[in-house]
């Protein structure tokens, strides 16, 4: 005789697994940890290392042209950069490994993105930042190189602005 099937077990197990995996990803690079030493290569071919950005507040945004949330949040990212760049904010938008470079260049040019846009052709940068796979994922890095906040999904920009004001004012 077969035992009755419990239809709730599979969804509950899948939900628990998703939460566990999200927790693992979320704790790989957390608040207070040092940002990894990486070198971004911009679409213009410039090299920018996190070591060279020490002493500045930096936002690193992992995104893709195929990500609807990324495309939706990009005008707010531009506004945030424009609001704080005069106070010393640096911003690097890192296109995911799977994003075709010509799509990234086209998006950057047609949207007139004012900050550095980098390609992560080998996926090394995403791996260095705790194996980022979900887009958008944004890191705010303090002047000392420590991660102040990690946002997965579109952030609350009022909170981002408050954090940036505090970080930029810090000695």
Automatic annotation (TrEMBL):
Gene Ontology terms, MF aspect: oxidoreductase activity
Domain Thioredoxin: start-end pairs: 29-169
Protein name: TlpA family protein disulfide reductase
Gene source species: Massilia litorea
């Amino acid at each position: 005789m077969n035992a009755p099937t419990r239809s709730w077990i599979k969804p509950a197990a899948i939900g628990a697994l998703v939460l566990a995996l999200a927790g693992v990803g979320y704790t790989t690079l957390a608040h207070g940890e040092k940002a990894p030493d990486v070198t971004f290569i911009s679409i213009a071919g410039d090299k920018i290392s996190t070591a060279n950005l020490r002493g500045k507040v930096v936002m690193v945004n992992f995104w893709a042209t195929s990500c609807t949330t990324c495309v939706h949040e990009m005008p707010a990212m531009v506004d945030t950069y424009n609001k704080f760049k005069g106070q010393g904010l640096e911003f690097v938008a890192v296109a995911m490994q799977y994003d075709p470079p010509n799509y990234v260049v086209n998006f950057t040019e047609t949207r007139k993105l004012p900050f550095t846009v980098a390609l992560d052709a080998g996926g090394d940068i995403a791996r260095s930042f705790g194996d980022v796979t979900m887009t958008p994922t944004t890191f705010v890095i303090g002047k000392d190189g420590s991660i102040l906040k990690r946002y997965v999904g579109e952030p609350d920009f009022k909170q981002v602005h408050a954090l940036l004001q505090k970080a930029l004012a810090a000695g």
